[in-house]
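sanity check this fold:
=====
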Amino acid sequence: MTSRNMMVDDQGLLNNFAIEPAMYVDANVSTGFTEYAEKVNGRFAMIGFVSLLAIEVLTKQSFIGFIKDILG
């Protein structure tokens, strides 16, 4: 008898230890300069660039000037 989080063994005792998921080995190694990593990196760069432009438009000063005002 098995439920989602608990198991009852053949003696009728409750075994509420964690049920381990099935393990597998992914044959495709996806580290380094993969297509997915480059797409994500490009998207974050675009978000950062648009944010930089928005700060300059909203504060009506350059980003460096904005940082100087905040820090000093």
Remarks:
- The helical segments are 35-59, 63-71.
